[in-house]
Amino acid sequence: MGDSRLAEKVYRAYATFFDQAEAERRWNPYRDVPWGEINREVSDDLILVAETFCAVESYLPDYVAKGINLVRKSFGQAWFAANWAYEESKHSIALQEYLVRSGRRTEEQMFDLQDRLKELEWKLPFETARQMTIYGCFQEMATFYIYVRQEARAQTEGDGALRTIFRLNARDEIAHTHFYEDVVKLLLEEDRAGTLADIALVTRGFRMPAADLVPEYDERVAVMREAGIDRDTFLQKVYFPVLKYLGVTRRELVEAAEADRKPRTAQPYRTGEIETWRTTTLGSPRRGKT
Amino acid sequence: MKNRSELIALFERKATEVAEREIKGVDESTVMSALGIDSLGMLELVGTMEKELGIHIPDDQLVGLTTIKDLIELIEERAAA
Question: Which residues 24-53 of B are in CB contact (within 8 Å) with A?
């Protein structure tokens, strides 16, 4: 299958994604959150989670600028990136509105946080479109899972507004996950060996982005782990389910990783492959989330 | 089936390959995360051991492994299955 056929399939995946988004997922952070149901007494940990996600989402300009350039030649992927950015911007707006309306942060504090965030710049964790698409599968799924956990927590703590925000955000995240997964499936059809090698590479180098960007990140991560996701949970709820959906086994990834490790200094076919990916095919923006 | 000393030696060899730096001095009480290999790297490491030993460990049993002893006991259990 040539690149043009692949591009057509990706565009169809995007069209399906976009149609569903328009029909079922559009929401307004100012109008669709029950702001009257804020519980001003929720725990500090829950507030910290909301603030951390707000901070990570605040790197959106970097995610968009760098991610979309990687995929600009793929119509479906580039348009997905634009829609993705729109949806993610609402996540940040809703969380920021919540923090201020709940009285747990002032507008001044939020602007101060934004200023501190802008001092650093997010960089792409992987260099090719295909690698970033794979990365997107795991990262979006992890974010979905964390939001779901936080939704339950907000419900337990009696905050209907924050519960709704987490629910709406989670719904977007899982939709993004499925799009990325569908694209990776197409990539596996197109070039299974190369895509497996990239999945192995992303697996090996995966880490939550923004770890070196968001202020006091280590303390935030400690709270986040306590609140919803640790390494084992990541494997159970994110990593293995994504592999299963993709139809990829650990054995295949081990073999791909071994093949990659042995001739690391001389792999002419992979070099060419990566160059092809960089210039002609798919991928997606990725942003930091924990 | 290899004995525990041999399994630890195999672990060290595979960990060195995966981490691309020498890893030695491992014993049963070693906490795997202390080796500087994260949980996803550990999956690759365990996968290479499964391949060499000719066993298969179900994904769900790979969750909750903390020490080398945990891993060795799991390998022994799967080898005996």
Answer: 33, 38-41, 43-44, 47-48, 50-51
Residue A75 lies in a domain: yes
Cβ(A284)–Cβ(A129) below 8 Å: yes
Residue A288 lies in a domain: no
Test B44 with A236 for CB contact under 8 angstroms.
no
Task: Please compute Rg for chain B using Cα positions.
Answer: 11
pLDDT in tens, A66-92: 999 999 888 999 999 999 999 999 999
Tell me what the mean pLDDT of segment B13-35 comes to.
90
Structure tokens at A144: 């979905």
Angle at B24 between CA B18 and CA B29, to 5 degrees: 100
Token pair, residue A258, equals: 């071994």
Residue A269 lies in a domain: yes
pLDDT digits (tens, 9 = 90+) for A199-232: 999 988 887 766 667 777 777 777 766 655 777 8
**Which of B44, B51, B55, B66 to probe the A interface (max A CBs under 10 A)?**
B44
Tally of domains in chain B:
1
Name the domain count of chain A. Answer: 1
- In total, the C-beta contacts within 8 angstroms joining chain A to chain B are 48
- Which CATH number is A167's domain given? 1.10.620.20
Least confident piece of the model among A15-24, A26-35, A150-159, A217-226: A217-226
For chain A, say whether B5 makes contact (Cβ under 8 Å).
Answer: no
pTM: 0.85
Q: For residue A278, what are its two tokens? A: 């960089």
ipTM reported for the complex, 2 dp:
0.82
Q: What is the CATH number of the domain that holds B64?
A: 1.10.1200.10
Could you tell me the residue range of the domain that residue A15 belongs to?
A: 3-280
Predicted confidence (pLDDT) at residue A7 exceeds the cutoff of 60: yes
Residues in chain A with CB shorter than 8 Å from the CB of B64 are: 232
Question: In degrees rounded to 5, what are phi and psi of residue B31?
Answer: -85, 125
